[in-house]
Amino acid sequence: MPAPITDEQNRLDREALLDTAERLFYERGIQAVGMDEVRTASGLPLKRIYRFFAAKEDLVVAVLKRRDQRWRGNLAAHVEQVPDPRERVLAVFDWLAEWFAEPGFRGCAWVNAYGELGPSSEAVLAEVRSHKQAFHDQIAVWIHATGLPVVEPVFLLAEGAIVTAGISGDPAPARHARAAVATLLGTP
Length: 188
Prior knowledge:
mainly alpha
C-alpha cells in the first residue's frame, strides 16, 4: 500500500497543476487543451487532478483566481513604488508596456477566457467580472489620490491598451494610452 499523501504534497501538486494548466490555457486556449494534455504535462494522474478539481471549469476558475492575485499584486508592487499620485497612475501604463513586451504575451487571460467560455460558463463569467471589477477598483484608488474625476476614462484606456496589444502583438498601445492619461491628469 502506498504511503498517504501529505498536506504539503497536496499543496505542491495542486500548485504544479495550476502552473501547468495556466501555461497551457494561456498559450493555446482553454478549449484547445484537453484534460489528457493537462495530465501529461503536469505528470499527475487524471484521478488525482479530478480530486483537486471536479471539472475542467473548476480548474479554469482556479487558474484565473490565482492569476488575478499574482497579476494585480505585481502591478501594485510596481505602481506603489512611485510616490507622486499622478506619476503612480502613469506607472500603470509603464507596467503594462513591460507586460505586453514579454515573450509569449497573448493578451488578457480574462478576456480570452470570456471569449471562449463566458457565454456558456456562469462560473468563468463571474470570475472574469470579478477580476475586471478588482482591476477597476485598484485603478480607482490610485486615481482618487490625484483628486481628479477620471477613473472611467483611465480604466477604459488601460483595458483598451490590453486588448489592442493582445491582438496586435505590439506593446505600443501602452505608450499611446499613457500619453492620453497624462493629458487627462494634466501631467507634462
